[in-house]
Design the sequence.
């Protein structure tokens, strides 16, 4: 799959049904140098945004429950087309995995550094050498190291 990578930052869609969380995610992602090209609060709208974005879409920020409905159809579509996603949810990671979601896990309330680290991890295979438009330092004792260790194939880009 060919992605529409710009010179810096990623083209992202935020799939989140809580308006304030969605707005905060959008602002945080833009502060990290990424472009939010769509926001969806329910499954159907998310699928429309994904279809409409085509190859311009680099990754999706995905909550697991949207207006009382599972976001599994969104994750399945993304998997079929080879688009990575980051799970941002209030659920425990064991619940996320039990429901069949495979994307990197960032718990709510999220920390911008962990979100940024997760995005670096999911795009590393698609965009070798991508380091983002800003470097993010994580404390060496951060629990993010544990959660993200299995997804971080871009360690050369992240200062620890």
Sequence:
């Amino acid at each position: 799959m060919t992605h529409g990578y710009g010179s810096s930052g990623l083209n992202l869609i935020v799939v989140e049904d809580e308006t304030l969380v969605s707005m905060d995610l959008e602002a945080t992602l833009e502060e990290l140098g990424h472009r939010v090209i769509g926001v969806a609060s329910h499954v159907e709208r998310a699928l429309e945004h994904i279809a409409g974005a085509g190859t311009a879409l680099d990754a999706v920020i995905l909550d697991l429950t949207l207006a009382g409905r599972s976001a599994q159809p969104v994750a399945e579509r993304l998997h079929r087309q080879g688009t990575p996603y980051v799970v941002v949810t209030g659920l425990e990671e064991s619940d996320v995995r039990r429901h069949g979601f495979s994307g990197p896990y960032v718990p709510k309330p999220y920390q911008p550094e962990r979100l940024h680290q997760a995005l670096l991890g999911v795009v590393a295979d698609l965009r070798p050498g991508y380091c983002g438009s800003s470097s993010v330092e994580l404390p060496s004792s951060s629990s993010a190291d544990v959660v993200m260790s299995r997804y971080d194939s871009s360690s050369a880009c992240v200062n620890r």
Notes: Residues 11-157 form a domain with the Rossmann fold fold (CATH 3.40.50.2300). The chain has one domain: 11-157. The CA atoms of residues 85 and 109 lie 18 Å apart. The chain is about 35% helix and 15% strand.
